[in-house]
Amino acid sequence: MDPQATIVLGKAIGAGLAMIGAAGGGIGIGISVGGAVMAMGRNPDHTATIQTNMILGVAFAEAVAIYALVVSLIILFVLS
Amino acid sequence: MNSFWNGKRRYVALLLFLAGVFVALVVPPVIPFIQLAGENLPAGYNIPFTDIRITNTFVAAVIVWVLLLLFTAYIARRRPSDGSEVPPGGFYNMFEALYEGLMGFIGGIAGGAHFRLIFNMFMTIFLIVLLSNWMSLIPGVDTVGFIHPHVKEKFDPETQEYKVITTDGFEIYQGFLGISYVNGQCDWVSPADEAAADAAALAAAETEAAAAQQTQLEDAAYARYQAEHGEHGDDHADEASDDHGDSHAEGMADSSAATAAYDEVLAARVAEKQARADRGCYTGVALAPWQDGYNGDKDAKKEPIPLHPDPSSEEAKRVPWVVLPWVRVASTDLNMTLTIALISVVMTQYIGFKALGFGYLTKFFNFATLFKSPLGGIDVAVGLLELIGDFAKILSFSFRLLGAMFAGAILLFVMSFLVPILPWPFFILEFFVGAIQALVFALLTAIFMNLATISHHHDDDHDDEH
After folding, report:
1. Domain boundaries, chain B
2. Residue B285 confidence (pLDDT)
3. B436 and A59 in contact by Cβ < 8 A?
4. What parts of chain B have a pLDDT lower than 70?
5. What is the pLDDT of residue B165?
């Protein structure tokens, strides 16, 4: 096999595998937003506070997915 | 002016849309060239009086600073000096509403004795990150820049020398009105690769021809052997000389057969080149390669990098070209995000020391309860974890912003490539992502700063947020 093709193949597979980590972030965001929406439905007076905390939690959960994204971006565009 | 535009803006929008369709038809979209590190501008664009080359993300950062300075000057000038409650309206009014909203927001989170300092840090980081994130929405950012030949050198550890990389890049072709375009349909083949392929084809043809000749010679020898042994064996010398002449003649015949084999093998290579030429793709000719500053030896860094003189010349069409944008969003460079993250974390420590004095260090090195309580060892471990966590904060801050904004930039590239006339929904998405990432960065800074000002000793019953 062409060594260049092997490198591209390995990079593609590695980047795809690295993005599995994004699933965790998705689950976390879903749980936190679900809980926040339920809380907002029960007491709409506290919507502002709940929303702030929700965005903060979503950002934390999203950060994990973004780490996975950064790893796959490094695999794709920095490794050679 | 305003009355003239009433009801006519929609036609302007429609016209721009049609112009987008037209441009997408005339200029085929090009597969984007993606690089994680900020690209160096060519030589001559150094920081004045140094050898340090400016990157295009640095240009964006400078633009953000200038915008912020102008913005501050404007706000300071428009602010009512007599303390009147009536805002002047317009942009100032909008900013005042935003400012008051955020002030109340941070007051709810970190409204302690250090509110002013925390809010100043929050607002500074928020505005810098917000402006640099939103720069990706401006047309021309990331897309307009130097067109330069994409030839780079790379160190080859096997041969211990620098090789020219020629795998990426596209050819340029002449468009209308004397404007040159990058042709995304043709991959570029370097002159070295082309010569190597030619040499390989020649070598293959020659071995093929030699094999054909060898086969024929063997056949001839076998026939001669048969003839010698089939007939009677006297007059050896004459026979031999005759045979020699015959074999020579046969050799001539053989060489024509070998030429046929030679041509047959070469024809494939010729057809391959012809097919390439039929597609309108050129083979490269050797030009002065684009030398990137960081490779080669150290002295080469000071050498000026040759910008190609004239991209529309006939020769220049035959090298691979990529666009080096003048301005690239600053948040897509790790240097920018890491700097802001370092400032944020260092200022957090500063506020901690300011609020708690040297007692702040007991947050990290908590030996007070080691021998007093049975669970004292856990406190020590928690303190050390906090120390590690503060270093992890630098990484998480910088990579979160970098990842979000770089992925957004790639999203815009790829969408512009796939759907050249309609990437605007993704611009709206990027608008929100940029705002949310800026808010998250600044908000996390404010929260960590507020945590740093809270003493650990007041709440020994372990009900803080960890």
Report:
1. 18-143+328-465, 191-325
2. 40
3. yes
4. 1-2, 26-32, 42-44, 85-88, 147-156, 160-193, 230-255, 276-322, 419-422, 456-466
5. 52
Task: Give the integer Cα–Cα distance in Å for B166 and B151.
Answer: 6
**b/e for B265-302, b at 16 or more Cβ within 10 A?**
bbeebeeebeebeeeebbbbeeeebbbbbeeeeeeebe
Which amino acid is residue B262, in one-letter code? Y
- Give pLDDT tens digits for B400-444: 999 999 988 888 887 877 766 667 788 899 999 899 899 989 998
Q: Amino acid identity of B464?
A: D
What is the residue extent of each domain of chain A?
11-78
According to CATH, the topology of domain A11-78 is F1FO ATP Synthase (1.20.20)
ipTM over the 0.90 cut-off: no
Q: Is some CB atom of chain B closer than 8 A to the CB atom of A71?
A: no
Which of A73, A75, A78, A79 is the best residue to mutate to test the B interface, defined by the most B CB atoms within 10 Å of its own CB? A73
What confidence score (pLDDT) does residue B188 get?
A: 58
**B410: chain A residues, CB-CB within 8 Å:** 73
> What is B33-65 written as a DSSP string?
P--SSPPBPPTT-BSTTSSPBPBHHHHHHHHHH
- Residues near B380 by Cβ (< 8 Å), separated by ≥ 6? B365, B366, B367, B370
Q: Which two tokens stand for residue B324?
A: 């080096």
Q: Which amino acid is present at B368?
A: A
Out of A49, A70, A78, the one facing B403 most closely (by C-beta) is A70
Q: For residue B303, what pLDDT is reported?
A: 38
Is residue B69 exposed (0-12), middle (13-18) or buried (19+ Cβ within 10 Å)?
exposed
Structure tokens at B96: 């005042």
pLDDT value of residue B292: 41
